[in-house]
Amino acid sequence: MDHESLLNDIYGAVADPTRWPHAVISISDHLDGIGGMLVYNAPPGGKNLIVLGRLNPDYTAVFHKHYVWNPWTTAIKDQPFNKAIVSSSLVERRIIQKTGFYADVLAPQRIEDMIVVSHRGMARDGGVGGFGFSLSARGADRAEQARRRLQQLTPHLCRALDATMQLGPLIDGSRQLMRVLQLMPSAAVLLDSRQHVVHANPAAEMLLRNGDGLACSSNGGLHLSAALPDEHVALTRTLAQALRVADGSGDMLGEPLRLTRLSGAAPLLVVPVPLPPPAFSLWELSDTARLLVLVIDPNARNLAAAAALQAAFGLTTAEARVATLIGSGLSGPQAAQVLGVSPATVKTHLGRCFEKLGVRSQVELARMLSALPPDRANFDGRT
Predict the structure, then answer these.
(1) Which structural domains are found in the chain, ordered by start?
(2) pTM of the predicted model as reported, rounded to 2 decimal places
């Protein structure tokens, strides 16, 4: 399958989440795999989620009952997010082949290896989730080649899954996209092929009206504009790159963009989601809309998360603010800029946070923040 068709399948799952199995199958075929899955492995006592693409559902019950936390799952939990990894590079196949997991689940399906992507948005409540694609013995011999292919698609998979998690709870099978956006608590904007704003939901209208970090400028039509000149150039470039994915002329997708807020509040996170016309026909979308821009304001999340960390672990106010900023993806210098302190001060606070929280890395800190109750720390949209 050509790359453009793969992207249409991936982003088509945003328009209609029931199409995720089809998207997973298309990618599995692209990797010369047996099948694939979109999965959330919950901690003991939690509710697991699995969406299968061509894999045998008869083995799902035994997997959930006995093997959710198999050696591969345990090893993947400590790996970087949004990176394609061959499972046997973490735990050797000869070790897996001695387990009940292999005898009861893998071997009957001729699965000898997997390529997996751990997704940050599913690292919640102590669980781990993302995408997994199964390889036969023949496919396992070419696992590295398949891994490189999957890594090219990983930014799109994670972006589409982020959008699905944002929009999914509001979809009832009949609502058009604009109606769904109206119900969203976070800001969302639709752009046409020239980056003109064609629709903004109520949260976006308020954000753009305040003009703190992101605003609208009139230059032959309404355009999104950033407060700082260099960030405005980066915003225009990021949106143009995503539009090239939408019209089929490109396949690269940039990282979500952080925009400085002159008020000193935490930076906004801008997440462009391409809308390829074939993928979004089910939304009965306006012909002009080609890009959905999700704007995440981490300020509300950070305040709730900081309060939760202070109450649970005895962090000071300064330590809690550093923990939430670093845990949401900012670097030490970026957190220092937001807080108006030196990088050395951030480093000192972060060291104390690690000690009090019992974590050893920013990845572990991010997982802890993701595990906070949803009503206190909502999904922040990072890929």
Answers:
(1) 3-169 (3.30.450.80), 173-296 (3.30.450), 300-370 (1.10.10.10)
(2) 0.71
